[in-house]
């Protein structure tokens, strides 16, 4: 997950083994409110992604944000397994939003401002395929918007350096409960230093 003290990592990993045995990760799309749409994004440590979207869009159409794992090749992955890089999953955030108040395009433009999409399998000091940048679309419309926004952001903001993957959303797994709302529940907890909103001009 994130850069934390070695003892804390060991403690979290032991907790994960217990939690996975008792409470496997589960799909949570059933929790999405009727009429809402979802966006799935990977941009490094998922604590910061969730926290930033809630903070900046909580009263602007965002209905919920959950952290979890996507894009891997194993069932019910645990934090420890994902951190090992062996499962192929990315840490990600599933956003539920009201499309009448918040657009998918706005969500993606913010995505390209709030993290560094030019580093492969890395975000700030956090290294590994689980920290890769990715957009996981749910339908053809989202795919089209993702490709358009990415092209413009690549040309106008990131000088051709974007390495973000754009892939169909596969199976989503909620992360363990203690990862949800982590920075709300742990004030002063780790935040990736590359997670901040860049001051960039509007895309044309």
TrEMBL record:
Belongs to the MsrA Met sulfoxide reductase family. Residues 38-192 form the Peptide methionine sulphoxide reductase MsrA domain. SUPFAM superfamilies: Peptide methionine sulfoxide reductase. PANTHER family: PEPTIDE METHIONINE SULFOXIDE REDUCTASE, PEPTIDE METHIONINE SULFOXIDE REDUCTASE MSRA 2. This is peptide-methionine (S)-S-oxide reductase. Its EC number is 1.8.4.11. It catalyses: L-methionyl-[protein] + [thioredoxin]-disulfide + H2O = L-methionyl-(S)-S-oxide-[protein] + [thioredoxin]-dithiol; [thioredoxin]-disulfide + L-methionine + H2O = L-methionine (S)-S-oxide + [thioredoxin]-dithiol. Keywords: Oxidoreductase. It is an enzyme of class 1 (oxidoreductase). InterPro entries: Met_Sox_Rdtase_MsrA_dom, Met_Sox_Rdtase_MsrA_sf. NCBIfam families: msrA (TIGR00401). It comes from Hortaea werneckii (Black yeast). GO terms for molecular function: peptide-methionine (S)-S-oxide reductase activity. HAMAP family: MsrA. GO terms for biological process: cellular response to oxidative stress.
